[in-house]
Design a protein that fits this description.
The chain is an alpha/beta fold. The protein contains 18 helices and 17 strands. The protein has a ten-stranded mixed beta sheet, sandwiched between helices. Strands 10-11-14 form a three-stranded mixed beta sheet. This is Alkaline phosphatase.
């Protein structure tokens, strides 16, 4: 206690009016009353970043962007006092132990929790074999298992909890499987070939969308005859309403596999296509969005510039040349979109959040929302006036689609998880994942388990990890508790196998305690220098709830996923089991599928 009092006296001399003083004193006194072991000895300077838990009892609203990370005010106090790193780590370690809830020290707590989980599992023996009137697919682009775990911790810490015990919305889904993500020609996949798998039901080559593996990337003349349709098309053909919501551009890899057939995922507009492909009759992806399936009810995301003639001024960024239109064919695809809509229907094009939220969804038949020239802004950077959140877009989309008595299919992509990882910006990536989790929760409140199949998965992983024997409640963006035993420098828990975070200073690994690793755009250190971090090749998780969700189990090829969704909804080619239904998507009384049909499906897959 004498050590802390000396420190506090120094703080008071430096900053007499600091409200942090009683907080520090109270926290340390609480810590002394616990039985914390001696903190590890760390001698490197600059470890004041480790004092992240002082604010752990301060209320944080659900809308706050601050996590366990230090606040600027606390940072200033520490910097002004030139506090010793040992003292900081000692306080942080002690406070970490004080965060262990009393109930968790009692074995009965864990036994009761396990027994309740067991009772819940036993209830699942009664399978939900209803017809899925609605299907919602959430795709976290690049959301590997390590990202899911880190996002879970971040979600908890944003609500002022240690984080590890927190549950994501997808954690509550009763059925979980693993998906093998490789492309037909790639061990570590890209988002285009994987999108073709989980939307169209066939595996494909990397870089291609909506075509079979007979199509070679960038070879337009290998496209014709090799097109494959998606579950969005199957749902539309069955009379359901359909929608696409993404935080990337609407003609990016994931959404484009739902409606386009392209030998190259990068053919966003005709401006990005080679003359040879244009002369051979291939169409760009934005063009296909408007022409291939003309009656998609909801389209929301970014990608505005690909819809307008080249050099057209953007409505939002008038002085930004990079935001200008790109089309060489001089088409205004917004006008084309409008021209395909029946005159007696209510069609709306919006480009900002204010316009979107001013709509009455129950009177909207068709909605096109393009909120950025390219991809949408990261959630942490989002302008609350011009750009809607993913949750807000999902809410509007479901309200529009749910009016159809035959149900709907909705594809929702948290696409910028992937971009954050590629840039080595783990904080951006994880906040994107937390926002997608909120959108999953929003969808859950608006639908029913009885008639809505919800599937959450990823297309691939990333070489993202976190470790370093961090203590319970350690900031997910914080330091490991010890320095490297090789170069004697601290390191963050989050690291990448490769990427732009590789930095050498004076011939040695950068000392992260000398930089603001809590910054939104901090690039976590990587083992191998690359301009862009790469995907990972391991399996990804599939979470499912609702009708026929139990068919997602074990380890599956990624292309199995849309076959399950279609089977559950009685759409697509495999509908023999739906003969007893009065119409596709309309469940008969009681269970739809016979035990014999279930057995046959399990044998097939």
């Amino acid at each position: 206690m004498a050590i802390l009092e000396a420190f506090l006296e120094k703080v008071e001399l430096k900053k007499k009016n600091s409200s942090e003083i009683p907080v520090l004193r109270d926290k340390w006194q609480l810590c002394l009353s616990s039985t914390a072991p001696a903190p590890p000895q760390v001698r490197k300077p600059g470890l004041e970043h480790q004092l992240t838990l002082i604010s752990s009892c301060q209320p944080i609203s659900s809308h706050s962007r601050r996590s366990y990370l230090w606040t600027p005010e606390r940072k200033q106090v520490l910097e002004q006092t030139m506090i010793s790193p040992f003292l900081v780590l000692a306080i942080g370690t002690c406070l970490t132990h004080s965060l262990v809830p009393e109930k968790e020290k009692d074995p009965k707590y864990w036994r009761d929790q396990a027994q309740q989980t067991l009772r819940n599992a036993l209830k699942l023996q009664k399978l939900n074999t209803n017809v899925a009137k609605n299907i919602i697919m959430f795709l976290g682009d690049g959301m590997g298992v390590s990202t899911v775990t880190a996002a879970r911790i971040l979600k908890g810490q944003l609500h002022n909890n240690p984080g590890e015990e927190t549950k994501l919305e997808m954690d509550e889904f009763p059925h979980v499987a693993l998906s093998k993500t490789y492309n037909t020609n790639a061990q570590v996949p890209d988002s285009a070939g994987t999108a073709t798998a989980y939307l169209c039901g066939v595996k494909a080559n990397e870089g291609t969308v909506g075509v079979s593996a007979a199509t070679q990337r960038s070879q337009c003349n290998t496209t014709r005859g090799n097109e494959v349709t998606s579950i969005l098309r199957w749902a539309k053909d069955a009379g359901k309403s359909v929608g696409i919501v993404t935080t990337t551009r609407v003609n990016h890899a994931t959404p484009s596999a739902a409606y386009a057939h392209s030998a190259n995922r990068d053919w966003y507009s005709d401006n990005e296509m080679p003359p040879e492909a244009l002369s051979q009759g291939c169409k760009d992806i934005a063009y296909q969005l408007m022409h291939n399936i003309k009656d998609i009810e909801v389209i929301m995301g970014g990608g505005r510039k690909y819809m307008f003639p080249k050099n057209s001024t953007d409505v939002e960024y008038e002085l930004d040349d990079k935001a200008r239109g790109t089309r060489l064919d001089s088409l205004n695809l917004i006008d084309v979109w409008r021209s395909f809509k029946p005159r007696h229907k209510h069609s709306h094009y919006v480009w900002n959040r204010t316009e979107l939220l001013a709509l009455s969804p129950y009177t909207v038949d068709y909605l096109l929302g393009l909120f950025e020239p390219g991809d949408m802004q990261y959630e942490l950077n989002r302008n609350n006036v011009t750009d809607p959140s993913l949750s807000e877009m999902v809410e509007v989309a479901i309200k529009i689609l749910a009016k159809n008595p035959k149900g709907f299919f909705l594809l929702v992509e948290g696409g910028r998880i992937d971009h954050g990882h590629h840039e080595g910006k783990a904080k951006q990536a994880l906040h994107e994942a937390v926002e997608m989790d909120q959108a999953i929760g929003q969808a859950g409140t608006m639908t029913s388990l009885e008639d809505t199949l919800t599937v959450v998965t990823a297309d691939h992983s990333h070489v993202f990890t976190f470790g370093g024997y961090t203590p319970r409640g350690n900031s997910i963006f914080g330091l490991a508790p010890t320095v490297s035993d090789t170069d004697k420098k601290p390191f963050t828990s989050i690291l990448y196998g490769n990427g732009p975070g590789y930095k050498v200073v004076d011939g040695e690994r950068e000392n992260v305690s000398m930089v603001d690793y809590a910054h939104n755009n901090y690039q976590a250190q990587s083992a191998v220098p690359l301009r862009h971090e790469t995907h990972g090749g391991e399996d990804v998780a599939v979470f499912a709830k609702g009708p026929m969700a139990h068919l997602l189990h074990g380890v599956h090829e990624q292309n199995y996923i849309p076959h399950v969704m279609a089977y559950a909804a009685c759409i697509g080619a495999n509908r023999d089991h739906c003969a007893s239904a009065s119409s596709a998507g309309a469940p008969p009384a009681g269970s739809l599928l016979s035990p014999l049909a279930l057995l046959a499906l399990s044998i097939l897959f």
